[in-house]
Each structure stands twice: as structure tokens, then as C-alpha cells.
Fold SOUL heme-binding protein.
Amino acid sequence: MSASLRAAAPVARPRAPVRFRRRAPAVIRAATTADADSPPYQVAARKDLYELRIYGGHYVCRAPYNNREKGLAALMSYIEGGNEESKTFPATQPLIMRYECAPGTEDVVGKTMELSLGAGVADPPASAEPEAVGVAAAGGELVAVVGFEGVATPELAGEYRRLLTAAIRSDGLELAEPDGFRLATYGQLYSLKPRLNELMLKVKPPGA
């Protein structure tokens, strides 16, 4: 390579590593943001990087999506009365997005989003638009959760997924859904305040 080409060539800059504090503060802050209508859970253990939570059973409205605004609109339609009983439900937090990846890759091949229907819901009505949004039972599982603040870009979510996966395996645990992950977001969708996020991986119970 000539001297002129070497001078014009861009200099590769190393990507700054993601830095964590003990018990990621966004996890703690998100826990204070949740209320009685949020998905119920108990903290089974707190690790240096993450929390292990046992989620109780609850109902959610869930929508497949490619465009986040359209997916959220479908969820809001259901909880504002777009169901067979015209029943309304509380606006709950967090908004949880589930991502399915091609086996062994980070290539997302399917996405859904969901909102809890609130505490005490036992028999939610069917959706008035089942092709856009449905009702599902969730919970009854062990989940590892790492919190972080800011905009959850695909690159940042991917890095947290890799780091959380490594930490889980280092602790002798095994992923229950190795080709999928979840991202929970707290706060108003269009707020300018720092967003609280939780990346979540389902874990097999020890000895299972």
C-alpha cells in the first residue's frame, strides 16, 4: 500500500466495552417502577451482573409485529376495549418484546410484544381482532435479568445477551430458550428521560 493510501485509510477504533456495576442499577430502579399490575415475580438470587427471578402466572395480551408503533397500537386497542366483552384493562409496565433468533445466530426471525393484563385476571376475553392481537398465559418460569439504561439498540441488546449468557453458564446454569431473548422497557414510549431496560433470558431450574 502506498503512503498516500495508508494516510487515507480509516483507523479502526476498538469498541468500548459495556461496563457494569454490581447489581445493575437499572434492575433496581425498574423494580421500583413496577406495581401490583406488573408481571408478578420473586427474586431468587442476586448475582454480580444479574438477578434470577421466579415469575408467577399471569395473562398478557400479545401481538406479532414488525413495526413497534403498530404492535403497540394493537395492544392498546385490546386493553382499551377491543375484545369480545368490551372490557378495559389497566395500562401496565413493562412493555415486553420477545425475539426469536435463527438457531445459533443473532438473526431475529420473529418478534412479538406483550403487556400484562393486571393482577387478578383469571379469564380474559378473546380479542376482537385475533389476527392482530391475542391473549396468552405467561410466567411460571425462572428468568435471568440484567438491567441497563438508554436506547436499547440491536447492537447493545446483542452485547448484553452475550454477556448475560456467559454469566449464566459460568454460574452452572443452562438456558431454557437458547435461541430467544426478551427485552422489557419501562417508562413512557416517547419520553426524553433515560429509558430503563431489562434483557431477560429464560433459565432451566437447577437440576432440571
About this structure: Helices lie at 3-8, 25-33, 68-79, 154-170. The radius of gyration is 19 Å.
